[in-house]
Design brief:
307 residues, alpha+beta, eight-stranded mixed beta sheet, 41% helix, binds iron/sulfur cluster
């Protein structure tokens, strides 16, 4: 939960999550929909998918006992080398090196390493440094101190070099390159995409559609989407055999993903006639209040809440 999310934002979700899934077996046995529901509001839903998958692996391959070695932990879904090392160091005292974003910054400055730390070459260098610095004893204290140094002293924008315990041999400080290190990610514009989302309304209910198991917002409930220039009435007839009145276009919603920026154009659509037949799987008519209780992507939740 804490990956790319602050502790304060996580706390109430964490307690709720543990109440729903008190141990790894309960989590592994739960349908992924229930896990996504409990995750709803935390964002980055891949983490929930990974957590659920990792619980399954721990139960089936390790008899429900969390593996103890960093190398094995790193093979669990969603756990990278640095997270695995942190778990192994704190939980089992293994002498394993971490290298998260904060630690990369501390090491890049302290050793004066040029280049963007995300490139394989620079990253390999930083890993080698991180491993060479591991103490013989006290790995927990060392690892916590390194993380705290990055989070509270050697911060990105305002490093407090005067109070830094490793300032005496810091290359960046000596050479006046603190602000320049680590080198920023080379600029690359994120592509923009736009879609139209249909708010189909019928007798006080809204049509939700389950998203595919892979891709963005995997497995969450969302609204049916079409290309921006689609003829909505024709589309509803062709796809649902439904007659509709196309209503107002609501204000666009911008949402940033890691690899692209998405603009959602919500379109209200009143259903005049819906064919009398069982609903297709993955489609669900819910009142707005019930819909808000489902596992929805954050922008869709915001959109429905404002209706
Ligand atoms: S002296 Fe400054 S730049 Fe160097 S490690 Fe300490 S806080 Fe970071």
């Amino acid at each position: 939960m804490l990956q790319q999310t602050r502790v304060a934002a996580v706390l109430r979700f964490y307690a709720r999550f543990l109440a729903a899934f008190p141990d790894v077996r309960a989590l592994a046995a739960a349908p992924v929909d229930r896990v996504l529901e409990q995750w709803s509001g935390l964002g980055y839903y891949r983490r929930a998918h990974h957590l659920h998958a990792a619980a399954g692996v721990i139960v089936t391959q390790y008899g429900g006992r969390f593996p103890r070695e960093a190398r094995t932990i790193a093979m669990l879904p969603g756990i990278g080398r640095s997270t695995a090392a942190a778990i192994a160091a704190f939980a089992f005292g293994e002498r394993a090196a971490i290298l998260d974003g904060n630690v990369k910054r501390v090491l890049a400055r302290h050793r004066g390493i040029d280049g963007f730390p995300g490139t394989p070459k620079v990253e390999a260098r930083l890993w080698a440094i991180a491993e060479s610095l591991l103490p013989e004893r006290g790995i927990e204290t060392y690892t916590q101190a390194l993380m705290d140094l990055g989070a509270t002293v050697c911060t990105r924008a305002l490093p407090r070099c005067a109070e830094c315990p490793v300032a005496t041999d810091c290359v960046a400080r000596r050479e006046g390159r603190v602000a320049a290190l680590p080198a920023p990610r080379p600029a690359k514009a994120r592509p923009a995409r736009a879609i139209r989302m249909l708010v189909l309304e019928r007798a006080g209910t809204i049509l939700l559609e389950k998203r595919p198991a892979a891709g963005i917002w995997a497995g969450l409930w969302s609204l049916p989407e079409v290309d921006v220039d689609t003829d909505v009435a024709r589309h509803c007839m062709a796809r649902f055999h439904a007659s509709v009145n196309v209503g107002e276009t609501l204000p666009p919603i911008a949402h940033g993903f890691t690899h692209f920026n998405l603009t959602i154009h919500p379109q209200r659509v009143a259903v005049r006639r819906w064919p009398l037949r069982a609903e297709a799987p993955g489609l669900l008519w819910l009142t707005r209040d019930d819909a808000l209780g489902a596992a929805l992507p954050a922008p869709i939740r915001k959109l429905l809440a404002a209706l």
